[in-house]
Amino acid sequence: MAILDDIYQATATGNYKGIKALVKEAIDGGTAPHDIVNKSLSAAMIEVGDKFGSGELYMPDMLLAAKAMQTAMEEIKPLLKGKEAMLEKGTVVIGTVKGDLHDIGKNLVITMAEGQGFKIVDLGIDVDPIKFVDAVKEYKPQIVAFSGLLTTTLGNIPEHIKALEDAGVRDKVVLAVGGAPVTRDFADRYGIEIYADDASGAAKEFLKVVEN
Ligand code: B1M
Questions:
Q1: Which of 10, 64, 82, 171 would suit a FRET pair with 45, their CA atoms being 20 to 30 Å apart?
Q2: Which residue, by CA, sits nearest to atom 82 of ligand 1?
Q3: Can you tell me the distance from the alpha carbon of 88 to that of 118, in angstroms, rounded to the nearest whole number?
Q4: 3-class secondary structure, 31
Q5: 149 exposed, middle or buried (CB, 10 Å; 0-12, 13-18, 19+)?
Q6: Cα–chain-centroid distance for residue 161?
Q7: Is 2-85 a domain of CATH 1.10.1240.10?
Q8: Would you kindly state where each structural domain of the chain is located, as residue ranges?
């Protein structure tokens, strides 16, 4: 579909000024919001990352692409939240792990989980382990979710888990993890109950926790 290609290109080239109009055009023309997210926005971010990895693009290019995706998401977010969002199914505390500044995937997980009726406590990026502990004590969530995009800072996850254990709250929550370099094996290695490779999958797994 041409409009999906146009949105893909706008994201890949960081055209954050033009992307809103394209997204509106796509939605008015009946394109499913999920297709815009998966086939255009997320797919373009993968291309940008690959080109950054190979030295074809630079940091400012990644930043502009991120800005384009975030601008597009402002239009799409309300559409991803259905009537389920009115029901409070449970609470999720979520953050990007210590040392990691990536938040687009985490924000997508939040949107999908809110759409399923979860209350979200978003701790943001580069979250210190103690902040997760404090949030668990304050909000009593069913789920604590870690997002991680950097191979290096995934190494901080055991520290996050240990902080929860030391505070005596690890067993009071179900842990979840996701992000581009994360695998099921990684989650299993640290006893993390939920692994999902995308935001919709994460929201589905969260639902299973509160429905059981
Ligand atoms: Co960065 N970056 N970046 N970056 N960046 C990656 C991740 C990288 C793969 C690019 C590359 O080199 N090919 C690479 C990591 C390599 C590695 O460790 N394996 C990388 C690097 C190296 C860096 C820096 C170190 C660059 C530098 O400074 N030299 C630096 C690190 C800064 C830091 O964090 N300390 C850096 C910085 C940045 C920007 C700030 C410029 C920007 C982030 C802006 C922002 O987030 N606000 C940025 C971006 C945009 C990217 C890429 C291009 C795109 C990431 C993204 O938003 N994707 C990325 C390339 C890539 O991932 N292929 C890259 C779209 C998003 C929807 O996907 O986040 O994967 P993602 O989320 C997915 C799933 O992973 C999943 O759901 C989403 C889809 O539905 N998911 C979960 C995510 N969290 C989940 C949690 C769950 C479940 C599922 O449960 C809890």
A1: 82
A2: 178
A3: 6
A4: coil
A5: buried
A6: 19
A7: yes
A8: 2-85, 88-211
Indicate which residue's Cα is closest to atom 77 of ligand 1. Answer: 198
For the Cβ of 192 lying below 6 angstroms from any atom of ligand 1, the answer is: no
> Cβ(45) to ligand 1 under 6 A?
yes
Report the greatest alpha carbon distance in the chain. Answer: 53
The CB of 1 under 6 Å from ligand 1? The reply is no
Q: What is the dihedral of CA 55, 95, 74, 35, to 10 degrees?
A: 70
Ligand 1 centre to CA of 103 (Å) is 8
pTM (whole model) above 0.90: yes
Strands (E), the chain: 90-96, 118-122, 143-147, 174-178, 194-195
Question: Residues 6 or more apart from 180 whose CB is under 8 A from it?
Answer: 49, 105, 149
| CATH superfamily of the domain spanning 88-211 | Cobalamin-binding domain (3.40.50.280)
